[in-house]
Structure formats: structure tokens, C-alpha cells
Amino acid sequence: MLKHVFLTDKPIQKVSVFLIAAFMVLSIDQLSKFIIEIEIVYGSGIEITSFFNVVHLKNEGAAFSFLSEAGGWQRYFFVSIAFVVSCWLIWSLMQKPHRKEAIGYALILGGALANMTDRIVRGAVVDFLDIHWQGMHWPAFNFADMSIVIGVCFMLWSGIQRDSTQKSR
């Protein structure tokens, strides 16, 4: 089953499956953030392993806290970008792209909608996954961020595979 899903790259037939997948990413992300907000005091965390903590932080900026100290306007800017990108991703899914590309679109869509929801509802994105090693911390992130990164990887994979297929012809 997984081999069929990931290794064949035919155009998709049912867009609804991918929209449901995006909604599932949104739902899982929002549920996890809700649990973090209830269970962990803001600014604190729980050590899980010697290199991984679950924390409760908020990011008013974008990736790596870009523009987090910009004074508040960035919230509306990032909501606007997420809205436009989400509309484009839905339109792209409606074009019935190849499977790997569609998986990428769905994962990015779910992540973008989840972080947009945070900005609208909470005023900032809740981050809670903290990876560190020997005192060096990767910026905290969340499931939506992971979904976006994995989605981009699927799109790159699809593009590389399509490019190599075209060159072999």
C-alpha cells in the first residue's frame, strides 16, 4: 500500500482526499497546541530526553523568529501571506497534480492553515518541540512546521523525479 502511494506518481483523481489530509494536519496541530497550553506553563518545559524537550513558547514572527520584534504589524502580514498561499495551494490541488506533488501541497496547506489559525486566534504561533545538543538549541517548532517542511520535501522529490524521467526520454 505505501509503496503504491509513494513510489507511483500518477495524477490524482480525488482532490477531496488531499483536502481532508490538510484538515487532519490542521486538527492534529491545533489539538497538540491546545494540550500544550493547558498542561505546560508558558515559558517552561518538560525534559523528555537529553536532547529533546516539550516547551511552551510563542513566536510572533516567522521561521527562526524572523520579524518577531516588529511591533505587531507582522501578525496581519503573515496571516495575509498564509491566506494567499493557502488559496493557491487549494487551486493547485484542483488542477489534479501528480500524487507526490499533491501530498506536498496538502501537507503545506495543513501547516499554513494551522499557523494562520494560531496568528488569528492566539496572536502568535505556539511552538513546543525543542531539540538541543550540548547547549545548542534548534529554534522551537510545532507539527505545522514539520508538515510544511515534509510537504516541501515531497514537492522537491516530485520535481526531481519528473525532471529525471524527462531527461531519460
TrEMBL record:
The keyword Magnesium does not apply. The active site is at 127, 145. One of its GO terms (molecular function) is aspartic-type endopeptidase activity. It is a multi-pass membrane protein. Keywords: Aspartyl protease, Cell membrane, Hydrolase, Membrane, Protease, Transmembrane, Transmembrane helix. It catalyses: Release of signal peptides from bacterial membrane prolipoproteins. Hydrolyzes -Xaa-Yaa-Zaa-|-(S,diacylglyceryl)Cys-, in which Xaa is hydrophobic (preferably Leu), and Yaa (Ala or Ser) and Zaa (Gly or Ala) have small, neutral side chains. Pathway: Protein modification; lipoprotein biosynthesis (signal peptide cleavage). Its EC number is 3.4.23.36. This protein specifically catalyzes the removal of signal peptides from prolipoproteins. This is Lipoprotein signal peptidase. It comes from Alkalimarinus alittae.
